[in-house]
Design a protein that fits this description.
Layout lengths: L5 H10 L6 H6 L8 E6 H5 L5 H9 L4 E5 L4 H13 L3 E5 L8 E6 L14 H10 L9 H9 L1
Parallel strand pairs: 2-3
Antiparallel strand pairs: 1-4, 2-4
């Protein structure tokens, strides 16, 4: 590997250090998708209450770091900050005024874990899904259906 040239130093000074997957890092609050345990969108963070999934993962992963979108109001983030503090999980606010992301909260490691599903389903979607499941009808026997027609 060759030594850095003066141009390399100038580019780092002007544009910052080169990063892998910069778009992915901007979307996921400075981290990569492969490092994420769980993620919430901004609208999910704004909902009343906390997501039980986040609480469970904070318990299971005390060495991970909670990244919060610093462009959001502190009133919405404070409940997750208190939760992280109660489980002794470190957290930080990530603010990037130039880039707009839909992600509001990320629990991530500093190394890859390749979690297959990182997004949590919205509370309202869970309720709708539970209601939309058809109830199984009990099959009536031939005798009971004839009995109902006669009487």
């Amino acid at each position: 590997m060759s030594k850095p040239t003066m141009d390399d130093y100038l580019e780092n000074g002007i544009y910052g250090q080169k990063q892998t997957k910069p778009d992915e890092r901007r979307k996921f609050l400075g981290t990569l998708r492969e490092r994420i345990v769980i993620a919430l969108t901004q609208s999910q963070v704004r909902e009343k209450g906390i997501y039980k999934e986040v609480q469970d993962h904070l318990k299971k992963h005390p060495d991970a770091k909670l990244l919060l979108n610093g462009n959001m109001s502190y009133t919405f983030l404070s409940k997750y900050i208190k939760l992280a503090d109660s489980y002794h999980v470190s957290f930080s606010m990530v603010t990037n005024k130039e880039i707009e992301t839909d992600i509001g909260l990320v629990l991530a490691y500093d190394h890859a874990i390749d979690q297959e599903e990182i997004y949590v389903q919205k509370k309202s979607e869970k309720a709708v899904e539970a209601k939309s499941k058809p109830k199984q009808k009990q099959k009536k026997s031939l005798f009971s259906s004839i009995k109902n027609k006669l009487f």
